Backbone:
């Protein structure tokens, strides 16, 4: 009896592993930044190079960093969702304009609407590397203490926002409120 | 005299392998051959995360270009290979390495070959012992099994 149960058990175990593997997205790379302090940056603003955008100014509140570029199809796809999220005024959305053309990026915001509280221009892509960005659009959630809480790689959808971002924002606010 | 067809095939084969000879960078990043070699070696160990089955030495994706620039600048700044690797892992995780490190999370994966070998050896010993016992009984003749 054992002679059959053991090989069958091993086969079943292997089958389960392979089955799970079938449904995983191999292009998804988990971020090592989750739970760690967000990388600091100080970049010029997209609209006014004289006005610096610094991550330090955002401490004390939950905020969202959205990495985008006019060359990125997924960014066009998620733009209306970002506008809807911005209208709800839950948290500020900071844009990181990644390796883009300044004029094109400004035109994009004029024509499609601007969901961002502020947009930092990362022409050289160094800040994006600090944040472990590898494919726009990517959206990070940062807590009031400056710790990265979540990262979403793919166009933002209302479903992702409601199930992944909102509960974490509320939890972060509650945790920050109980400390002070 | 080599027949024309053979010559054509030979040329096709040689051209097919010629890709490896063409570096992505149009010129060397360093004048110093030692630094240049370090630069190339590190690039060959780092994964391009946009085109996941290529190293950043093989890929011309913009991210790969940016990461090569980062490697070049860090070498120029006097950082060690280990520091450069650590820089990449902090940002992109262990997946960025083509030669993965042993960590608590993937220890089982590293140990699996040895583990399977040991299990196989144990099974082999058991089977051999059992067979040996069975053959020991045989000289008693077929009656032994019947009793």
Residues:
């Amino acid at each position: 009896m054992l002679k059959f149960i053991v090989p069958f058990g091993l086969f079943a175990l292997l089958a389960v592993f392979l089955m799970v593997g079938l449904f995983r997205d191999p292009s998804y790379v988990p971020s090592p930044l989750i739970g760690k302090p967000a990388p600091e940056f100080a970049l010029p603003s997209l609209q006014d190079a004289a006005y610096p955008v610094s991550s330090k100014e955002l401490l004390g509140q939950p905020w969202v960093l959205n990495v985008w570029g006019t060359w990125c199809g997924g960014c066009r796809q998620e733009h209306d969702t970002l506008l809807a999220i911005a209208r709800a005024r839950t948290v500020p959305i900071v844009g990181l304009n990644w390796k883009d053309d300044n004029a094109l990026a400004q035109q994009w915001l004029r024509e499609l609407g601007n969901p961002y509280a502020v947009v930092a221009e990362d022409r050289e892509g160094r800040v994006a590397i600090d944040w472990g960005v590898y494919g726009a659009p990517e959206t990070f959630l940062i807590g009031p203490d400056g710790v990265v809480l979540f990262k979403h790689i793919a166009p933002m959808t209302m479903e992702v926002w409601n199930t992944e971002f909102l509960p974490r924002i509320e939890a972060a606010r509650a945790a920050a409120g109980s400390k002070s | 005299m080599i027949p024309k067809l053979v010559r054509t095939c030979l040329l096709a084969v040689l051209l097919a392998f010629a890709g490896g000879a063409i570096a992505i960078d149009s010129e060397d990043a360093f004048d110093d051959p030692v630094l240049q070699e370090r630069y190339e070696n590190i690039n060959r160990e780092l994964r391009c995360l946009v085109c996941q089955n290529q190293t950043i030495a093989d890929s011309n994706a913009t991210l790969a270009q940016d990461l090569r620039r980062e490697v070049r600048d860090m070498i120029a700044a006097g950082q060690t290979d280990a520091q450069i690797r650590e820089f990449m892992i902090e940002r992109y995780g262990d997946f960025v390495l083509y030669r993965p490190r042993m960590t608590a999370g993937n220890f089982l994966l590293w140990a699996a070959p040895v583990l399977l070998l040991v299990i196989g050896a144990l099974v082999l010993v058991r089977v051999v012992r059992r067979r040996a016992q069975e053959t020991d009984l045989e000289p008693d003749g077929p009656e032994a099994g019947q009793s």
About this structure: Chain B has a mean pLDDT of 83. The first helix of chain B runs from residue 4 to 18. Chain B has two domains: 23-101, 106-136. The helical segments of chain B are 4-18, 33-45, 62-76, 81-92, 107-137, 143-146.
